[in-house]
Write a structure and sequence with these properties.
Blueprint (H helix, E strand, L loop, with lengths): L1 H38 L5 H34 L6 E4 L3 H23 L3 H9 L3 E2 L4 E2 L10 E3 L4 E2 L4 E2 L2 E4 L2 E4 L2 E3 L4 E2 L4 E2 L4 E2 L4 E2 L4 E2 L4 E2 L4 E3 L4 E4 L3
Parallel strand pairs: 2-4, 3-5, 4-9, 5-10, 6-11, 9-12, 10-13, 11-14, 12-15, 13-16
Antiparallel strand pairs: 1-8, 7-8, 16-17
Helix pairs in contact: 1-2, 1-3, 2-3, 2-4
The structure holds coenzyme A.
Length: about 230
């Protein structure tokens, strides 16, 4: 009972903080819009509407960038990390994981619009994700980035879910995901906790790789659950 109350109180604080976080990130865009309102007060209507419209658009982009930057700063401060675990939902470990997930969620709506870019790579790295050189992360769905390692020259396809956690009945499972060099994780594929994807492996679009699966280097896996469809050449 006490755990449940604690969880509800923390969730409510988290939701309220989201408003403050996003609100603070609005400041640069709001300043721009207010400035344009002021300098165009005596302009002709269409010209004014055009400039104000652009300032809203730029203000939105500024909000996304400021949200990502602000969340990255929190990432650098809190240095997210979790050890592998299988724990009850109502436990200190799951509360800590929940806190880190809320932190990540502050930026995710903005990451969605900006991937792939150096900005989202910067964000993922600030949240503890290890990303090698030449890798394209096109997905906005790297959950638990602090438990994900991606090698060099790999592609993480659009909408691919890389998750180091799974909720299972009464337990929360946490285990790192390791993706090697030169891998291709197809569009909408799902890589579950504890998976190791070997160098040069390909995971087909929409495949689901079950937890703790070891995909050997150079192989192609597809389907639900994913199975090998091509051996190493
Ligand atoms: C898996 C994949 C690499 C296979 O491509 P390929 O080497 O050209 O092979 P083919 O298209 O000839 O398919 C080989 C077999 O795999 C099957 N297959 C292909 N894609 C599949 C998928 N997503 N799920 C299940 N089976 C699949 C084919 O039906 C075929 O089966 P068959 O031999 O029984 O006829 C490709 O289909 C794929 O999913 N690429 C991911 C691309 C992507 O999402 N990039 C990121 C973009 S954001």
């Amino acid at each position: 009972m006490l755990w449940k109350i604690t969880q509800n109180v923390l969730t409510t604080i988290g939701i309220l903080y989201t408003g403050i976080h996003w609100g603070l990130a609005c400041v640069p865009g709001a300043l721009l819009v207010l400035y344009v309102f002021e300098i165009t007060s005596s302009s002709i209507l269409l010209y004014r509407a055009g400039l104000i419209g652009i300032s809203f658009g730029l203000g939105y982009v500024m909000w996304m960038l400021a949200t990502i930057l602000l969340t990255s700063v929190l990432g650098f401060i809190f240095k997210p990390s979790m050890a592998p675990a299988r724990v009850a939902f109502l436990s200190m470990t799951s509360i800590r994981w929940g806190f880190l997930s809320c932190l990540d969620r502050l930026a995710k709506p903005c990451v969605h619009h900006i991937v792939p870019s150096w900005i989202t790579d910067f964000y993922y790295r600030a949240m503890g994700c290890k990303i090698g050189k030449g890798t394209f992360v096109i997905s906005d769905r790297i959950n638990d980035p602090y438990m994900v390692t991606i090698g060099s020259d790999s592609i993480i396809g659009s909408k691919a879910i890389i998750t180091a956690h799974l909720a299972e009945k009464d337990n929360l499972v946490l285990s790192p995901v390791i993706i090697g060099d030169n891998c291709l994780i197809g569009l909408g594929a799902q890589i579950n906790p504890g998976c190791v994807i070997g160098d040069g492996a390909v995971i087909a679009s929409r495949a689901i790789v079950p937890k703790y699966t070891n995909v050997p280097a150079g192989e192609t896996w597809a389907g639900i659950p994913a199975k090998q469809i091509k051996k190493k050449k």
